[in-house]
Amino acid sequence: MTGRPAPAVLPPSLRARLGLVAALAALVVAGLAVLYAGHGEPGRVDRWIIQPTADSVRPPWRYVAVAVDFLGEPTGSAMVVVAAVTGCLLLRRPRAAVLMVAGPGLAVGTATLLKHLVGRTIHGADNLSYPSGHTTFLTAFTFVAALLATDRLGLGPTAGTSLVLAAALVAGAAMGWAEVALGAHYPTDALGGWCTALAVVPATAWLIDRIADRLADAGPRARR
Known about the structure:
Layout: H1 12-36, H2 44-49, H3 61-70, H4 74-90, H5 94-118, H6 133-153, H7 157-181, H8 187-223
Helix pairs in contact: 1-7, 1-8, 3-7, 4-5, 5-6, 5-8, 6-7, 6-8, 7-8
């Protein structure tokens, strides 16, 4: 007996649309990287939005910003990932559990690598800023959660894509606001982090599905 195949973490109906989104997001990440490579000051767009060189939010909103920021810290991110993985396993979604770890992990790893390659700084040469790792993490995590919700709700291509992108936008905007409000990043750092997640997570989901499908197909052949 082979059992029922595990549901794909990247629904086939969403692959083309999210693949296009990933490609466009990668272009934005690359474009901003070239534009701000080696810079240590806010750009024109950053200055137009807000001056991100000092804390720009006061209580009680500052407490909200600190709470959101905590979700991107190692302790906070580990807590939400462990909780999400546990939920995926309880729902019998092993691929989703893997993506809950691999998606945000690879996205943040990509953001960290880009920081060293781009060399943009804020508040001194030791503080690499582009792209925002916190924004990358929360966007990637929410993206994966929205993919699982799309599958559970049985949404079609338009509704599913809308849900995933809306959830990612809300998460990225919330963390981006917190990072800029606390003076930790420029607005364009947050945009770069958001786009990094949009570029990495669909590719990671597709790869997980490919590997899982091949392993599932290899099992019956090995028993022949």
